[in-house]
Amino acid sequence: MRRTTKTILLAAALSIGGVIANPAYAVAAAHSPEGVCGSGFARVADSKRAVKTPSGQVFGYVYLMYNRRTGYNCVTTIKTSYVGTATMTSATLMTQTKRIKDEPARTNKKTDNRKYKYYAGPVKLYAKGFCVKYSGTIADTRPQGEIASGGRSAWGNCG
Asked: Stretch 114-121: mean pLDDT, rounded?
Protein backbone atom coordinates (compact mmCIF):
# COMPACT_ATOMS: atom_id res chain seq x y z
CA MET A 1 0.00 0.00 0.00
CA ARG A 2 2.79 2.39 0.96
CA ARG A 3 4.73 1.60 -2.20
CA THR A 4 1.69 2.32 -4.42
CA THR A 5 1.20 5.71 -2.76
CA LYS A 6 4.87 6.59 -3.31
CA THR A 7 4.66 5.52 -6.95
CA ILE A 8 1.54 7.65 -7.53
CA LEU A 9 3.12 10.67 -5.82
CA LEU A 10 6.33 10.27 -7.82
CA ALA A 11 4.39 10.01 -11.10
CA ALA A 12 2.35 13.10 -10.21
CA ALA A 13 5.46 15.08 -9.30
CA LEU A 14 7.18 14.14 -12.56
CA SER A 15 4.16 15.09 -14.66
CA ILE A 16 3.85 18.46 -12.89
CA GLY A 17 7.57 19.03 -13.39
CA GLY A 18 7.15 18.48 -17.15
CA VAL A 19 4.45 21.14 -17.30
CA ILE A 20 6.45 23.58 -15.19
CA ALA A 21 9.59 22.97 -17.26
CA ASN A 22 7.85 24.13 -20.46
CA PRO A 23 5.54 26.98 -19.47
CA ALA A 24 6.29 28.97 -22.66
CA TYR A 25 4.71 26.31 -24.83
CA ALA A 26 1.65 26.10 -22.63
CA VAL A 27 1.24 29.89 -22.67
CA ALA A 28 1.75 30.14 -26.45
CA ALA A 29 -0.77 27.39 -27.09
CA ALA A 30 -3.29 29.37 -25.05
CA HIS A 31 -3.07 32.31 -27.48
CA SER A 32 -5.57 32.14 -30.31
CA PRO A 33 -6.40 34.89 -32.80
CA GLU A 34 -9.93 35.03 -31.36
CA GLY A 35 -8.53 35.48 -27.85
CA VAL A 36 -6.04 38.15 -28.93
CA CYS A 37 -8.55 40.18 -30.98
CA GLY A 38 -11.34 39.86 -28.43
CA SER A 39 -15.05 39.25 -28.24
CA GLY A 40 -17.01 39.33 -31.50
CA PHE A 41 -14.04 38.78 -33.83
CA ALA A 42 -14.12 35.75 -36.11
CA ARG A 43 -11.87 34.40 -38.83
CA VAL A 44 -12.68 35.34 -42.40
CA ALA A 45 -11.97 33.57 -45.69
CA ASP A 46 -8.22 33.59 -46.31
CA SER A 47 -7.64 34.51 -42.67
CA LYS A 48 -4.43 32.59 -41.92
CA ARG A 49 -1.09 33.01 -43.65
CA ALA A 50 2.24 31.42 -42.76
CA VAL A 51 5.04 33.74 -41.65
CA LYS A 52 8.01 32.15 -43.46
CA THR A 53 11.69 32.87 -43.98
CA PRO A 54 13.16 33.08 -47.48
CA SER A 55 14.51 29.54 -46.90
CA GLY A 56 10.98 28.27 -46.10
CA GLN A 57 11.04 27.95 -42.29
CA VAL A 58 7.70 28.83 -40.68
CA PHE A 59 8.12 31.03 -37.59
CA GLY A 60 4.37 31.55 -36.99
CA TYR A 61 1.11 32.70 -38.56
CA VAL A 62 -0.59 36.02 -39.22
CA TYR A 63 -4.39 36.08 -38.84
CA LEU A 64 -7.08 38.40 -40.20
CA MET A 65 -10.26 38.64 -38.13
CA TYR A 66 -13.50 40.62 -38.58
CA ASN A 67 -16.21 41.83 -36.22
CA ARG A 68 -19.55 42.07 -38.09
CA ARG A 69 -21.17 44.10 -35.33
CA THR A 70 -18.54 46.85 -35.23
CA GLY A 71 -17.12 46.70 -38.78
CA TYR A 72 -13.54 46.44 -37.50
CA ASN A 73 -10.82 44.12 -38.79
CA CYS A 74 -8.11 42.80 -36.49
CA VAL A 75 -4.68 41.36 -37.27
CA THR A 76 -2.37 39.40 -34.98
CA THR A 77 0.88 37.54 -35.62
CA ILE A 78 1.29 34.50 -33.37
CA LYS A 79 4.73 32.88 -33.01
CA THR A 80 5.39 29.15 -33.30
CA SER A 81 9.20 29.57 -33.22
CA TYR A 82 11.19 31.38 -30.52
CA VAL A 83 8.12 31.16 -28.26
CA GLY A 84 8.86 32.69 -24.87
CA THR A 85 11.86 34.61 -26.23
CA ALA A 86 11.41 38.30 -26.99
CA THR A 87 12.10 38.78 -30.71
CA MET A 88 11.01 41.52 -33.10
CA THR A 89 7.48 40.59 -34.11
CA SER A 90 4.99 42.69 -36.04
CA ALA A 91 1.37 42.76 -37.17
CA THR A 92 0.23 45.24 -39.83
CA LEU A 93 -3.22 46.07 -41.18
CA MET A 94 -3.95 48.41 -44.09
CA THR A 95 -7.45 49.45 -45.19
CA GLN A 96 -8.73 51.42 -48.14
CA THR A 97 -10.88 54.46 -47.47
CA LYS A 98 -13.38 56.35 -49.59
CA ARG A 99 -12.27 57.87 -52.87
CA ILE A 100 -12.50 61.59 -53.42
CA LYS A 101 -13.56 62.15 -57.05
CA ASP A 102 -10.90 60.77 -59.39
CA GLU A 103 -8.13 60.53 -56.79
CA PRO A 104 -6.67 57.12 -55.98
CA ALA A 105 -8.16 55.40 -52.96
CA ARG A 106 -6.60 56.58 -49.72
CA THR A 107 -5.43 54.13 -47.10
CA ASN A 108 -5.11 53.77 -43.36
CA LYS A 109 -2.26 51.71 -41.94
CA LYS A 110 -1.55 50.55 -38.43
CA THR A 111 1.37 48.45 -37.19
CA ASP A 112 2.41 46.89 -33.89
CA ASN A 113 6.16 46.21 -34.05
CA ARG A 114 8.18 45.42 -30.91
CA LYS A 115 10.00 42.60 -29.19
CA TYR A 116 7.36 40.09 -28.11
CA LYS A 117 7.52 36.65 -26.54
CA TYR A 118 4.28 35.21 -27.97
CA TYR A 119 2.43 37.47 -30.42
CA ALA A 120 2.11 40.97 -31.91
CA GLY A 121 -1.21 42.80 -32.02
CA PRO A 122 -4.05 43.16 -31.88
CA VAL A 123 -4.05 45.77 -34.63
CA LYS A 124 -7.57 47.03 -35.36
CA LEU A 125 -8.96 49.35 -38.04
CA TYR A 126 -12.47 50.10 -39.24
CA ALA A 127 -12.96 48.40 -42.60
CA LYS A 128 -16.68 47.89 -43.24
CA GLY A 129 -17.17 48.17 -46.99
CA PHE A 130 -13.43 48.50 -47.69
CA CYS A 131 -10.68 46.18 -48.89
CA VAL A 132 -7.75 45.22 -46.65
CA LYS A 133 -4.15 44.01 -46.79
CA TYR A 134 -2.38 42.43 -43.83
CA SER A 135 1.05 41.13 -42.91
CA GLY A 136 3.24 39.89 -40.11
CA THR A 137 6.94 39.44 -39.43
CA ILE A 138 8.95 37.45 -36.89
CA ALA A 139 12.73 37.83 -36.50
CA ASP A 140 15.24 35.11 -35.79
CA THR A 141 17.13 35.38 -32.47
CA ARG A 142 20.59 35.40 -34.07
CA PRO A 143 22.18 38.79 -34.88
CA GLN A 144 22.40 37.92 -38.59
CA GLY A 145 19.35 35.62 -38.52
CA GLU A 146 16.53 35.48 -41.02
CA ILE A 147 13.34 37.49 -40.88
CA ALA A 148 10.12 35.62 -41.61
CA SER A 149 7.23 37.42 -43.25
CA GLY A 150 3.78 36.59 -44.54
CA GLY A 151 0.33 37.97 -45.22
CA ARG A 152 -1.56 39.28 -48.22
CA SER A 153 -0.07 42.05 -50.34
CA ALA A 154 -3.09 42.41 -52.67
CA TRP A 155 -6.34 44.06 -51.64
CA GLY A 156 -8.96 41.54 -50.53
CA ASN A 157 -11.77 40.72 -48.11
CA CYS A 158 -13.66 43.72 -49.48
CA GLY A 159 -17.01 44.53 -48.01
From this structure: 97
